[in-house]
Amino acid sequence: MDEFSLIDSIKQTYYSQPTLIKGIGDDAAVIRQSASDIVTAVDTFVEGVHFRRDTMEPFHVGFRALAANLSDLAAMGATPAFYLASIVIPKTWTEIEIAEIFAGMKKMAGKYHMDLIGGDTVSGKELSLSITVIGYVDHDKIRYRHTAKAGDIVFVTGTLGDSQAGFHILTNPSSYDNAAYFIKRHQLPTPQIDFAAHLQKFTRITLNDVSDGIASEAAEIAEASRVTIQLEDNRIPVHETYNQFPSDSQYNWKYFGGEDFELLGTVPSADWSELKSVAKLLPVRITKIGKVINEDTSGKVYINKDGRNYTLPKQGYTHLK
Ligand code: ADP
Ligand code: MG
């Protein structure tokens, strides 16, 4: 299939977003400015670096790449609207596989009425998919990570370590409890867009999405807000069958594994019970995992385990180390 028939096959026949004036089909897309602020982010997924063909079907590659990007919009409090997809296609990938990547993106995009408004298609040695997302947020409802204050409650949505557990199951075949659940969390993650969208009534709430692990995400909030974050090890939420995995893996995955695409945040303690009610209605599981303290302004994260305080290293998956 040539570039032009690929573009034809992914071109939408209608637009979901009222602000879209021109999508795919000209030299660039055109969006009419709305009253909201525009929030945009880009993420790149490279075969062999971000995913392996033996643990991800092409559909998962597209679905997960867009999910990871949407997770960043959720962490800003933004509502997704558009995406652009730039793809490098090697000769070893079939037309059907490429179509499946786009089908995966379309499935994720459809959940949030997003339009695919452009991209680029080129050939190359490794499959690489770079997605740009565009969303909207009301002026005063953006969720920056520099707004945490001493006394805030630290919370996280969902359960942690699941994605790494799923990857472990895929790469270490054996019999596991709830294997399908963990594998799904790895291949088809759900960004917490709906949760973020239901926080309109809160004036101050800090959010960061769990892409590199909560050790790293908590440190980013602590650094940006110039506070210390104190976490309680026995409060970190994990799946009820998480204890089937080796104990050092349990520890590593929940703090440093990442890719669960949950939201880590802080909220004034006076708003905590209201936040719990909002989450319960959706429903989204949220758990209080610690608090913000004033001790140090350099961005430290402590973890209390068996009555002792440890400094949690800011580590996670980093590419340039
Ligand atoms: P140009 O040569 O003017 O850069 P292209 O032939 O690259 O245009 O693209 C034509 C149209 O198809 C543009 O609207 C572009 O955004 C869109 N497009 C190209 N590749 C993709 C892709 N992988 N995903 C989505 N849209 C794409
Ligand atoms: Mg081009």
Q: Can you put this structure into words, describing what you see?
A:
Helices cover 31% and strands 25% of the residues. The chain has 321 residues and is α+β, with helices and mostly antiparallel strands. The protein has nine helices and 13 strands. The strands form three sheets. A seven-stranded mixed beta sheet has the order 8-10-7-11-9-12-13. A four-stranded mixed beta sheet has the order 3-6-4-5. Strands 1-2 form a two-stranded antiparallel sheet. Adenosine-5'-diphosphate binds next to helix 1, strand 4 and strand 5.
Question: What key phrases describe this protein's structure?
Answer:
alpha+beta; 7-stranded mixed sheet; 9 helices; 13 strands; binds adenosine-5'-diphosphate; binds magnesium ion
Tally of contiguous helical segments: 9
SSE ordering: HEEEHEHEEEHHHEHEHEHEEE
Report the bound ligands by name, code or SMILES.
adenosine-5'-diphosphate, magnesium ion
Q: State the helical fraction.
A: 25-40%
- How many beta strands in the DSSP annotation? 13
Average pLDDT, rounded to a whole number, is 95
**Which radius of gyration do the C-alpha atoms yield?**
20 Å
Q: Strand pairing plus helix content: what structural class?
A: alpha+beta
Strand content: 25-35%
The largest beta-sheet arranges its strands as: 8-10-7-11-9-12-13
Query: How far apart are the first and last residues' alpha carbons, in Å?
Result: 39 Å
Question: Runs with pLDDT <50, length 5+?
Answer: none
Give the CA-based shape: globular
> How does the major sheet shape up?
7 strands, mixed
